[in-house]
Structure formats: C-alpha cells, structure tokens
Amino acid sequence: MPSVRRMILGHVISDVCGKMNRRKNLQGDIMETPLKRCLSTFDITLLGVGHMIGAGIYVLTGTVAHDIAGPGVIVSFIIAGLVSLLAALCYAEFGAKVPKAGSAYIYTYVTIGEFWAFVIGWNIILEHMIGAASVARAWSGYVDSLSGGTISNFTNQLIGDRMKGNPLGHVPDPLAALLCIIYSLLLGLGVKCSATVNSFLTLINLIVMALVIGLGIYHADLKNWSSENYSFMPYGFHGVLAGAATCFYAFVGFDSIATSGEEVRDPCRSIPIATAFSMGIVTIGYVLVSGALTLMVPFWEINPSAALPEAFASKGIYWAKYVISVGALCGMTTTLFGSLFSLPRTLYSMATDGLLFGFLGRVNSRTQVPIVNLAISGVISALLALFFDLQHLVEFMSIGTFLAYTIVSASIIVLRYRPEKVLSPISTTSTSSTLTSPPTEGADSSSDGRSMTSAESEQLLNYCEDTGKLKFRYAWLAKFIGYCDPGTVVSMSITFYAIGCIALCTILILILQSLSLPTWSDYIMIVNLILFLSGCLFLIHAHKQTPSTGSFRVPLVPLVPAMSMFFNIGLMFHLSLLTWLRFLIWMLVGMFIYFFYGIHYSKEAGGPNSYSILMASSEAGRGAKWGSTLRVGQKSDKMPILDNDDLSH
Predict the structure, then answer these.
(1) pLDDT in tens, 145-202
(2) Beta strand ranges found along 28-180 (DSSP E)
(3) pLDDT digits (tens, 9 = 90+) for 320-358
(4) Which one-letter DSSP state was computed for residue 27?
(5) H or E element: which one contains 427?
(6) I need a surface site. Which of 174, 202, 324, 588 has the fewest CB within 10 A?
(7) In whole angstroms, what separates CA 640 from the centre of its chain?
C-alpha cells in the first residue's frame, strides 16, 4: 500500500512538473494579431527614448553627482549604459524572432517553460505598475515645487488632519493619481494616436536636453573636475560603481520596445534598430548632461533636488529654469506613457495564453487596444500613486527588472543551442507550422525578395539537426560529459553558471562590506569560482549553435548574455532585505494565481507540450529518463552528443 501511495504521489508530482515546464508553441502566422500593426521604427525608437529619459535626467544626475560619484558620474552612466546594452541586445534578438506582446514573458515561455514565464510576467506587471506610480509621484512633486508648495499645502489642509496616524506616514497625492487616470484615457484612444503624442513630447525633451548641454559647455570650467581637495573621482572607483548601480535605473524601460512587437509593422527589422538607437541616444544624453552639470558647478555645490535649475541660476540664467521645467514634465510624462503602454499588453499576452483570467485578453474592436486591461492598469497605478511615497515605490520596482533581464539573457543561450525544426521560407508561406522558437525566414525573404533554393533549404535543415552537439574539434569532451540529448549539456551549464554567479557575487559583497582586508582563502575562492564560470562557458562554446536565419542575433554568444547575467545578479545583491520581503509577498500572491488557475487553464494544455515530460512511472518500461522531453516530430531515443557526420571530417 505505501508503495502504491508513493507511486501516485510521484505521478502527481511528475504531472505538475511536466505542466510547469510546458513551452509555448507559436502556430501559423506569427505576424497575425488582433492588435493594430501601425508603429514604425521611428515611433518605437521614441517610445524607448521617452521611457528611459524621464525623471532620471533631471533628478538622478544631480543626486548621484553630489552624494555618490562626483564628476565620476559620467563613468557611472557609461558603465550602466554598457550593462543595460547587454540585456537590450538579448531583448532585440527575441523581439525579432518572436514579434509578440509580452516582452520577457513571451520569450521565457518560448524557451524555458511556463512556470518561469509566469514568474517573469508577474514581475513585469509589478515593474510597470510601480514604474507608472513612481513617475506620477515625481511629476506631481515637480509641479508642486514649481508652484511653491501650493498643491501640497492645499492637500494637507484638506485631508491632512484626517490622515494623522496612518500607517503610510504621509498624506495621499491625488494629483499623481489623477495623472495616471488621465493618461490611461489618452492611451485608450488608440496606439497610433498615443504614440504620436509620445513622440511629440519626447522630441521636446530632447530639444531641452540639447539646450542644457550647449549652455552647460559654454559656461564650463575644467577646474570643477580637479582642485586641490577633490579629484575627478572624489569617492574613488567604488563610488563610481555604486553610482553605476543607481544609474542603471535610468535605463530601465527599453523593454517597452519589445513589448510593442505585436503592433510594429516590421518587427524583425524595427525592434533591433530601435533598441540600438534608443540606447545610444539615452547613453550619450545622460553622459553629456552629467558632464555639463559637473563642469558648470562643483559637485559639492549641486542641489540634489533641483540640480539643473539651480546650476543655471548660479550663472545668472534664470529663464532656463522654466525651459528645464517644460523638458522635465515632458520627460516624466513620456516615462509614464511607457509604463502604462507596456502594462496592459503584458496582461493581454498572459491572459491569451490562459495564465491569467480570460477577460484580460479582450481587445476593443474599434481602437484595437486592450481597453479592460488599460482601465485596470490605470486604476491600480493611480491607487499606488495615491497612497505610497516615491522612495518606497522605487525600492520595490528594481527587483523584478533585474530578474527579468537575467532570465532573458539565459534564455538566449538556451535557445541558441537547442535543436529545433526550422522551415524554409517556401514552406512557411504554404503551410502552417508549430514552432517552439519560430523562425523569421519568411519575413526576411519577403523583405528582400529572395527565396531559398531547395539545396539551401536542405543544407539549413541538416545543419539545424546538428545544433546542440559537440563541435568536431571538441570531440574529446565526449569522454567526460558522456551522451545526452542535444542542448542538455548547455542547459545544465547555464544553470551551474547562474549558481556560480550567485556564489561569486555573495563573496564579493561580503568582502566589500568587511572592514578587514581579504585573506588568501578569499582570493582562492574567487579564483576557483572564476575558473568554474569560465569552464561552464567553455562547455557551452564547445557546442554548435542554431544557424542564422537572417534576423538580428546577439554577437559573441555565450559571452555577451553571460556577462549580462552576472551584472544583473550582482545588482540584485544591492537591494535591501525589506525589498526582498515585499517581493516574496508579491510572489506568493502570484503562485496562488498560477497553481489554482493558470496551470489548469493554460492554452498549452491541449498541445503536444501538455503531456508530462517527467512521467517516470508510465515511461519506466520504455527507458524514459528524468528530464527527457517528447515532442512532435522529434526522436525520443537518446542521441549521442557528437554527430556521426562530424567523424567524417
């Protein structure tokens, strides 16, 4: 009897694990969507720029320069921009391959599995909700400062006495809540209309930035970067790195470009171009503004709360305060637009997959916008902006962003070395296909007017069958790693690499926080972990990648996404314990929704992935092993990791 119970329990656990590891199959034409494909490369480039250049350019620059890095804030922005670029490249490759709404959520669903996709999607929802609320709070505070505190004084007189002793410790902000509602109504008019408004406001912001840079350089004094008591890096390189961790938040928002993938006319071309241009514009803008600011005023005299207006006032340029205020309000409005634009589309994508409630997947037939999601997003963001202050909102936003960046980077490596069936452009136009990682050859061939010959198609298919197997020059590794399904060794290596990154970051943080000097044992552990991480990357590099299909691909794989993983894991270690506790509560709510609703109503339950991949009890007689995946059109027997064709070379 106990053995029967263990068998039943094992069967149940196996079935649940199999459902959690289901991967999304994209069927038929991946360009087909109920949303309106009307956005150009220009539109989504300004969408990304507007989402990234907001309160950061007018508030964050002065704070980091005064308190953390000094004039070295320039280097901090360069480092933060490069780290963000690593993640942005991964998003761009996925955006070109999977032109669907949902950004990191849909990419994880396609490559890793349903459970991790839900985790990422749930955290993206948190990121955009809090992002919208925090920007609305900053917008309200900026307007209040321009009015000399008139708005806050009125609010205090109206409801301040009634809120004494409230657990939040401050008076609600009705102006911030109203802003979220108004902008949600604007977004409901249609994606093209709202994108036009966003582009207009972003261009105004860029013009104001250009004016700030020009005036700043005109009034520059190189002595402000070097004096008898202070240097270019007064807080040392440690201060520059700490500033980079803070400046990283200025680049959060480029994923809104990928989120718009289902509304872009030519996503395979536009998303990579828009990502590259927006990251370049934002990085150059932040570097030049921070340079102009620290050249105009010594960093110790910068006013963190109003850095740019006070800097120009010290030079007698009082009118610049009003110009900068216009740019600041435009910038914060476009950042709010980016969050409220991305949030309902993530809800829509998860709902259409069955992981969230079905009514969230409805699209208005006239405006072709998920109106219900937009209304819910606006109301929840308004409530957060009404009751929570800016500091608590910003602290809670970052953890989901870092986690999403980390998993997307890992997904790039997994997808690049996993064997999948890739169809030629001819077959994709005549038949519908079921793909776990959909190719973009059809879009590519239609864009350049070239068709693939039958010989080229056969050569491509043959090469795809070798994906995930050892390269011929590394055949000797088969003696050590044995025989596995193609792609299995890569998946295990990236898992161990992530664990190694966590261990290395833990040791580095403990050493930096320790008052004593590192010991020899510390150095030995660091060297061993670096060798371990290098070994994981070498094992990945020793295998064959999937062939290029003409769409954008991240260069230097696995190095670039692996570096992105390491930096994002390291930045997560800078978060406070309270932030992790809040994150845990949010995740508990998400797990309740997934295991009591999403796992049962998932659209993938009716597809080939619905069969458990861990059915050890039913497959034991046929020699199935834990972790093996049975897929339509794929051989179920174990294949050697080294292809026989390689031996002929």
Answers:
(1) 777 777 777 777 776 555 554 445 466 788 888 999 988 888 888 888 888 888 899 9
(2) none
(3) 888 888 888 888 888 888 888 888 888 888 898 888 888
(4) E
(5) helix 425-430
(6) 588
(7) 36
- Cα dihedral 494→500→502→507 (10° resolution): -160
| Span 3-39, pLDDT tens digits | 777 777 777 787 778 888 888 876 666 677 777 788 8
SS3 435: strand
Burial class (CB in 10 A: 0-12, 13-18, 19+), 498: buried
CA distances from 563 to 86, 231, 511, 535 (A): 7, 30, 21, 14
**Average pLDDT for the chain:** 77
- Given a contact cutoff of 8 angstroms between Cβ atoms, the answer to whether 363 and 35 are in contact is yes
The position carrying tokens 């053995």 is 3
**C-alpha distances in Å from residue 136, one per residue of 246, 334, 600:** 20, 11, 37
The candidate with the shortest Cα–Cα distance to 48, out of 273, 291, 286, is 273
Question: What is the average pLDDT across 220-226?
Answer: 82
Tell me how far apart the alpha carbons of residues 566 and 616 are, in angstroms, rounded to a whole number.
35
Q: How far apart are CA 45 and CA 63, in angstroms?
A: 27
The answer to whether 452 touches 439, Cβ cutoff 8 Å, is no
CA gap 311, 296 in Å, rounded:
7
Phi then psi dihedrals of residue 169, to 5 deg = 80, 15
Q: What is the pTM of this model?
A: 0.75
Nearest to 468, CA basis, from 532, 544, 536 = 544
- Tokens encoding 467: 């994906």
Q: Which helix (H) or strand (E) holds 238?
A: helix 236-247
Average pLDDT over residues 217-235: 80
Dist. CA 176–CA 324, nearest whole Å: 20
Helix, strand, coil % over all residues of the chain, rounded to 5 = 70, 0, 25
Burial of 39 (0-12, 13-18, 19+ CB in 10 A): buried
User: Which amino acid, one-letter code, is at 529?
Assistant: L
3-state secondary structure of 245: helix
Whether the predicted pLDDT of 625 surpasses 60: no
Please tell me whether residue 470 adopts helix, strand or coil conformation.
strand
Please state, in angstroms and as integers, the Cα–Cα distance from residue 207 to each residue in 203, 210, 211, 216, following that order: 6, 5, 6, 14
Q: How far apart are CA 505 and CA 496, in angstroms?
A: 14
Dig out the tokens for 545 from the structure: 């990648």
Residues 383-406 have pLDDT tens digits of 888 877 665 666 566 677 788 888
Residue 58, helix vs strand vs coil: helix
- Note whether 425 and 442 are within 8 A (CB): yes
Contact 562, 319 (CB under 8 A): no
Residue 543 β-bridge partners: 470
Q: Which amino acid, 202?
A: T
- In this predicted structure, the answer to whether residue 637 has a pLDDT above a threshold of 60 is no
Type of residue numbered 72 = G
User: Is pLDDT at 442 greater than 70 in this prediction?
Assistant: no
Q: Please give the Cα distance from 375 to 188 (Å, whole number).
A: 9
Three-state DSSP at 264 gives: strand
Q: Confidence band (pLDDT; 50, 70, 90) for 526?
A: very high
Stretch among 336-350, 531-545, 631-645 having the lowest mean pLDDT: 631-645
The Cα-based distances of 429 to 29, 537, 542 in angstroms read 9, 37, 35
Give the whole-angstrom CA distance, residue 422 versus residue 434: 10
